[in-house]
Amino acid sequence: MNAVLSNPNHPEYGQVTVPLPIPDNEYAHCMEMLEQLEIGGVTERDCRIDQLDRSPAALDVLEGQEVNIDELDFLARSIERYWGNEQPKFEAMAYKLGLKDVPSLINLSFGCEQTTIITDFENLNEAGKDHYMDTHGGTAPVDVLNHLDGEKLIRDLIATGAGTVTPSGVVFDNDFRLEPHYTGRNFPVYYDKRYLMEMELTPVSSEPEDAPMTLLLPTPEKRLERLLERGGYRKAEDVQINVWRTELPDQIADRLNIPHESLMELNRMFQAVEKLNGDEVDRLAAAVLMSQPDYASQVRRLAENLELFEFIPNIKTAEELGRFMIQQSGHFEYDPNLGGFYDYAKYGEQRVKEQAGEFNELGYIGYTGAMSLDELMMEDPAEQEEGQTMGGMA
């Protein structure tokens, strides 16, 4: 969907159209467009919604309201995952509860799946089976569903008189309670894509209003800056990092002292790793074992220059390397009739020497670049300067 936004205090500044959810590669640009209208504050509700296109009916009440752009974007992300009858449930419960603001709708988006909605009275058996799953965590064994009298179950439910007629269908709340998952500061944890690391940021101060924040990486750099500011983390000394989960191979994760790493550099590293396929991640792990980086920025540089590394998994000796290169690499015209006359070990040793390669727990890794590995992992001077000007969080 799209939101047409304007400055409520200066409508003469014009309008901008923002796609929702905001794609990662467009996030920074969208924030720049809002800044030109002097709106889009980190916590301010300063964006007037003039129009919503292709949005769920439950969001129509937001037109004409002043909202926070990140709250609106998070709401769009949290309902984008809906499938089947989940969106009708959301719309029906929003109607039933009379919700008319973004924070309340965010809270509704977390949990309304447990409610039951009837949209098709021609198929009460299926509606009854859906109700059974709604009240049993969303799943049920196939044999249970096959023997379930769904029509009787749903008729019994209708007979309770607990249903509410809405434009989306008849909804039963099943004792649903609107919980305060979002209270206006840190957003709830939401996995709308594959994240490579989940961490908890804990404030060093003990002020009552301070609360831990769960951070998922990678995320657009501009969004990360705004999330940190929203959480009250402006300086490195404001925060302690506790890692809950990472999908990095151990060979990479073990090289990082994450609690003392730059959050911005960690994010940039994950952005580089996110672009790699499974085989490339294995090659990066082998390159890390070879080059022994000390910082996330150095791992990022390796990930960005993987084409300079030759990696052959599960190769442990020079002879195995030579055999692979001559027989399987496609670089040579191998004649199996002459197999006994090839000196695989000698060729493998030559290859290792040319590439300053090594054998490690993952296989063979060789480096083909012109500069040294230390030079390859060195940050550009401009990147070093930027890292020193991000308020300590870079």
Tell me about this structure.
This protein is α+β, with helices and mostly antiparallel strands and 394 residues long. The protein has four domains: 2-82, no CATH class; 116-172, Orthogonal Bundle (Arc Repressor Mutant, subunit A); 197-274, no CATH class; 278-381, no CATH class. Helix content is 38%, strand content 16%. The strands form four sheets. Strands 2-1-3-4 form a four-stranded antiparallel beta sheet. Strands 5-7-6 form a three-stranded antiparallel beta sheet. Strands 9-8-10 form a three-stranded antiparallel beta sheet. It is globular and about 85 Å long.
Task: Provide tags for this entry.
13 strands; three-stranded antiparallel beta sheet; 16 helices; four-stranded antiparallel beta sheet; globular; 38% helix; single chain; disordered C terminus; 394 residues
Counted by DSSP, the helix tally is: 16
* CA distance, first residue to last residue: 33 Å
Main sheet record: 4 strands, antiparallel
What is the mean pLDDT?
Answer: 90
Task: Tell me the layout of helices and strands.
Blueprint: E1 2-6, E2 15-19, H1 27-36, E3 47-53, E4 66-67, H2 69-80, H3 86-97, H4 102-109, E5 116-118, H5 124-134, H6 142-146, H7 150-159, E6 164-166, E7 169-172, E8 197-203, E9 213-217, H8 221-230, E10 239-246, H9 250-253, H10 263-274, H11 278-291, H12 296-304, E11 309-313, H13 318-327, H14 344-355, E12 358-360, E13 363-367, H15 373-377, H16 381-387
Helix pairs in contact: 2-4, 5-7, 10-12, 13-14
Brief overview:
The chain has 394 residues and is of the alpha+beta class. It has 16 helices and 13 strands.
